[in-house]
Amino acid sequence: MDHLERLEGDLSFVRGALDTSTRSKSPSALYILWAVIVLIGFALVDFQADLVAAFWAVAAPAGFVASAYLGWRHARRIGQASASDGRRYLLHWGAVLVVVALAVLLGTSRAMPSGTLHTMILLLLSLGYFTAGLHLDRTFLWVGLLMGAGSVVVTVVPLYAWTAVGIALAVSLSVAGMREGRSREATT
Amino acid sequence: MKRQPEIGSAELPLVELDDVLQHRARIGAVVLLARHEQLSFSRLKALLQETDGNLGAQMRKLEDAGYVAVRKEFQDRRPVTWYGLTAKGKRALSQHLAGLERLIRQARRARG
């Protein structure tokens, strides 16, 4: 093998290692946490609508802080810590949280009816997850697509649509979390 | 079959390639550290598919060249060695990659 071939082999090996290192970043616990939050929060719309605003006012910021902690702990545990990656995640999900909070303000100021508000929040989350799938972690991509489809379902189906969408999202997030755990075991 | 030009020959002069980075594990470690900022020894070992002994020796060479900084800490009562790229390491990688680009261009021209 000549020098040039060895060099090409080395570069291809380095590219492979780099691809493996950037493949998955989110811990399984994070998916399970949001599966539980989404399931409860969505089911409340059908069963206890007066508690929806209070639930999300607490669960969304608490989930955000818990997710940041889980991500930080996961990075240390797998031995791959990047401050710039952490900042990108915080900025993305922080922006989603702020936009949803501003949408809720529109709802409370009666600028928008509550039924429309819930669907709009689901659409915003769908966009948040979809763009996270594009820029941060590929796994979020199809959760975002599912949320987008869910926003159509809740406008068309009259009964228990939010609960059904919540179950579908909780299942998809749990499956994504389990797949992440398995693929990580395979690479470490 | 057409003869491939050798690096260092008249057709492919050895330009600006860093000797320290001309090893698969060392260039791999430096590229990974440029992307991720901080990596533990065990993470590097898994990603580069190296043995403890070999990776330890290669990381020591990078450390001696001043390309990586080492930080040791205890995590759940276990010692963990973290590596990060120094400013000198970043400069060396950048120059090495520029040299590789030039080399590849020259190789393409030499191959016709």
- Return the string of H and E elements of chain A: HHHEHHHH
Strand content of chain B: 15-25%
Strand order of the largest sheet of chain B: 1-3-2
Q: What radius of gyration of chain A results from the CA coordinates?
A: 19 Å
Largest interface (C-beta under 8 Å): A-B, 27 and 31 residues
Compute the gyration radius of chain B: what is it? 17 Å
Total helical elements of chain B: 4
Number of helices of chain A: 7
- Helical percent range of chain B? 40-55%
Please report the distance between the alpha carbons of the first and last residues of chain A: 31 Å
Instruction: Report the principal-axis shape of chain A.
Output: elongated
Quaternary state reads: heterodimer
Number of strands of chain B: 3
Distance between the termini of chain B: 13 Å
Low-confidence segments of chain B, given as residue ranges, are none
Structural class of chain A: mainly alpha
Give the DSSP E fraction of chain A (strand runs of 2 or more residues).
under 5%
